[in-house]
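To: structure desk
From: M.T.
Subject: fold request, one chain
Message: Could you run this one when you get a chance? Sequence is below, nothing fancy, just the single chain.
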Amino acid sequence: MSVEFIGIDPDTDRDHCPTVWVDPDAQEVLLQGWKPNALTQAQCEASSPAHGPVPDGEAIVRIPARMIPLLREACDAVERAQLR
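Reply: Done. Structure tokens follow.
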């Protein structure tokens, strides 16, 4: 697996920095973000009752809107990997 760094939150304080990577081989986007509080997690789960609670092996992460350009870049990188 070769993970490619895309970028970090442009307003980072270097201690708490949401980050975006891609794995072109697996064609996946990897995200580091803030864990939601219990209320936010409950709201996410309630908004899609057919899906039930978030499984132990999965997580909800919060990414600031200012990182949308990095998310687009990551999506583009994964799409390019699909064309190889």
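Reply (cont.): The longest strand covers residues 4-8. Let me know if you need anything else for the meeting.
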